[in-house]
Specification:
The chain starts with a helix and ends in a 6-residue tail after the last helix. Helix 1 packs across helix 5. The protein is elongated. The chain has about 120 residues and is an all-alpha fold. The chain contains five helices and no strands. The chain is about 65% helix and about 0% strand.
Amino acid sequence: MRAIGLNRILTVLLLALVLFSAILVRPVFADEADTLRLGAKVFGANCAACHLNGNNVVMANKNLKQTALKEYGMDSQQAIVAQVTNGKNAMPAFKGRLNDEEIQAVATYVLAQAERDWKPQ
């Protein structure tokens, strides 16, 4: 008798978890698409002059392709956010020019484009 009650409780909890997850997943995809659109806009306006198509006109080897990002430890959201925010070497800091949302969005965009080898969508 006790096992049947426990099974029902677990079934209800599992069902609730599945429904809750389904509700949360839809906005995440919308948010991600919005973030990528914002990132593309920010990139085009602020980064493309030096990094068009993931390249680097100043230091060719330090481009935004996945191999180079990994080689230089820039293959994470956190690393790219820090670089965009604070700048480094020839790259200027964008803190104060871009807000936190724009910096996060451009980092998300760069990582997504690097995964696609900067091929058009």
